[in-house]
Specification:
Blueprint: H1 2-60, H2 68-235
């Protein structure tokens, strides 16, 4: 975009310089045309004087002996005729020059029109580039706004995810602690069961021993009574 603007500015400067040169050429052509007009006016004046002198000479030709005035007039007429020839030559040259200047003016006018058209095209191109740059600026602005919105939404989402992750981690830690406590409780439960089983197993022989002791005491008691009864019967 900046390179195109620099090219447009450089081309615009060239167009203005060419237009100034064309204006200078047009001014020069106008000056030449003015000089040609002055020469034509001088030629017309000389031709008018020549006609008047020619009439005087014709009116004085009737005299038999030319006077000094007549001789002067004849010399003057010859000089005027020579001047007229010179003026005709100058007029012809001026006409050629005018034709060239006219052609050059037409060419310069065409160049000026072409330069104006080119300048208008450059202005249109500049306007188009400005409009395009404005559209690009708006697009970039919308993109930046969307990027900012997306960034904020992403940051919010990341914060929510982090909070959820922290909550999940906390719950996992709590669950792991609960599982550990449960395992410890299960271990203690198993140990208690084993201890109770061992105690029960240990109580079985002891109970058997107590039962045997009770039975022995009962037998002893019964045996003493039987002996007494037999002794009583024997005595009586």
């Amino acid at each position: 975009m900046q390179a195109e603007n620099r090219d447009l500015e450089y081309t615009n400067k060239q167009l203005h310089a060419a237009l100034k040169r064309s204006e200078a050429d047009c001014n020069k052509a106008q000056e030449n045309a003015r000089q040609a007009s002055e020469l034509q006016l001088q030629l017309a004046t000389v031709q008018e004087k020549y006609k008047k002198l020619k009439k005087k000479l014709q009116s004085q030709k009737a005299a038999t002996q030319p006077s000094q005035t007549t001789t002067w007039l004849q010399n003057r007429a010859s000089k005027l005729e020579l001047d007229e020839q010179r003026l005709d030559t100058a007029k012809f040259k001026l006409e050629l020059r005018e034709n060239k200047l006219s052609s050059k003016e037409e060419e310069l006018e065409k160049k000026r029109v072409a330069l104006q058209e080119q300048e208008q095209e450059q202005n249109d191109e500049r306007s188009r580039l400005k409009a395009q740059r404005f559209m690009l600026d708006q697009k970039i602005k919308r993109h930046d706004e969307k990027a900012t919105t997306d960034k904020q939404a992403h940051e919010t989402d990341m914060m929510e995810r982090k909070a959820m992750l922290d909550e999940i981690t906390t719950k996992k830690d709590a669950l792991a602690s609960h599982e550990s406590l449960k395992k410890t409780a299960d271990d203690w439960k198993q140990k208690c069961i084993r201890a109770e089983n061992e105690a029960a197993a240990a109580r079985v022989p002891y109970a058997t021993l107590e039962s045997l002791q009770d039975e022995n005491r009962f037998l002893k008691k019964n045996c003493g009574f039987t002996r007494c009864l037999l002794q009583y019967r024997t005595a009586h």
